[in-house]
Known about the structure:
The chain has 131 residues and is mainly beta. It folds into 2 domains: 24-95, SH3 type barrels (Roll); 97-130, no CATH class. The protein contains 1 helix and 7 strands, in the order αβββββββ. It has one helix at 8-19; strands spanning 35-38, 58-64, 70-74, 88-90, 99-106, 109-114, 123-126. The N and C termini lie far apart (73 Å). It comes from Atta cephalotes. InterPro entries: Chromo-like_dom_sf (IPR016197), Chromo/chromo_shadow_dom (IPR000953).
Amino acid sequence: xxxxxxxxxxxxxxxxxxxxxxxxxxxxxxxxxxxxxxxxxxxxxxxxxxxxxxxxxxxxxxxxxxxxxxxxxxxxxxxxxxxxxxxxxxxxxxxxxxxxxxxxxxxxxxxxxxxxxxxxxxxxxxxxxxx
Length: 131
């Protein structure tokens, strides 16, 4: 069929024939600005009791309507993460951070290194805030 012979009715029928197999992505589970964790790659011999998710918290920047729905993420400093992710876990407590170790003690305060965050964010906190 020549392109000059195509009418609007035929065009719609052709589109339905060609694109009937393609599934459109469903609704997204997360919203832009939400805090999430990324799934962690585990080897075949890794212990089953280790966590399946990273301890680092990411923020959703953009939702891509692909099949499956993918998300563009950024780190806590606003740096974007390369690639798009579809297997995410909602961070239930976005304001609670895990402590890797205590570096110094001074009176009622402790200098801590946070887990999954680089050393530029080490900070002094009150010892009663450590659980």
